[in-house]
Amino acid sequence: MKNIFKLITLFLAFLVLSSTSTYAQGKSQDKIKGKKEKVEKVKDDIDEEAEEHQEKAEEIKEKGKANKDKAKDKIKGKKEKAKKVKDDIDEETEEYQDKAEEMKEKGKANKDMAKDKMKENKGKGNAYGRDKGDMSGKEFGQQRAVLAKEKIEKTERSFNENEETLRKGRDKVKEAKEKVEKEREDKSVNEEILKQKEEKISKAEEKLNELEEVIKRGKEKVRKKGEEIDKVVKPVEL
Amino acid sequence: MSIILIGIVSCRDTKKEQEELDKTLDTIEAVEQEIDETVEEVEKKAEEVESALKELDSL
Questions:
Q1: Do A172 and B35 touch (CB under 8 A)?
Q2: How many CB atoms lie under 10 A from the CB of residue A136?
Q3: A121 domain-assigned
Q4: Domain housing A151
Q5: Residue A201 near residue A177 (C-beta atoms within 8 A)
Q6: Which of B51, B47, B43 is nearest to A218 (CA)?
Q7: In this predicted model, what pLDDT tens digit does every residue of A214-230 receive, in sequence order?
Q8: Is residue A9 in a domain?
Q9: A163 belongs to a structural domain
Q10: Which of A125, A159, A201 shows the shortest C-beta gap to B42?
Q11: Among the listed residues B22, B19, B49, B30, the one whose alpha carbon sits nearest the alpha carbon of residue A151
């Protein structure tokens, strides 16, 4: 009896153990299955995310390309605009140049015409003429002499202005000479270039000397002509 | 008779006056012409000077 009891106990114990083991085994399998599902889900999520990122990357790439094309078009447009502006300016410049040439020609023609007219008037009293109107001969002569004297005074004033140019020119030449001299001493400039500079200075000096001579002669001439006018014109008898 | 004499004298005076005026005007015009030529010569030379001086600016 005792043995039977032991056997039953043993059998029960075995039964409990085996059921527990089966349960545990089933549970473990469920766990693995759950983990597998979880892994699958994570994998799917990652794939989905990767796909999403790739799509976004594609989108950005497309957008970049579009922007690049847009920028290219913009640059092209600007280049075309700039070319058009340049062409317009060139055209306008050409037009102005033509106009300037035309005006120059016209000016020259007018000058020539004025010269011809002056030549024509020579001996007829220049710009003032010989028509004395209501004036007497003496009065008219007096008036013409006054105008001639005014012209002489104006000429003398212009000589003074030219003398000022002469003085300034001399100063400039002096400064240029000093500069060249200093450059020669410093050896900062090539000797050949210094000679070229000296040639320019000499030329300017020569021209200044010529101007001085012309002014001197002109002044003397104008002085004598003034005296001639004074001799010719007698005071008007009142 | 006296009127004729006055007329003759007057005409002579007018002719003389005109001759004197012409002489005066000839002199004045010759002077003016010479002055114009002188001024032109001086101005031309002054332009040459200015051009030569401009060359010195680049030294």
A1: no
A2: 13
A3: no
A4: 139-238
A5: yes
A6: B43
A7: 999 999 999 999 998 88
A8: no
A9: yes
A10: A159
A11: B30
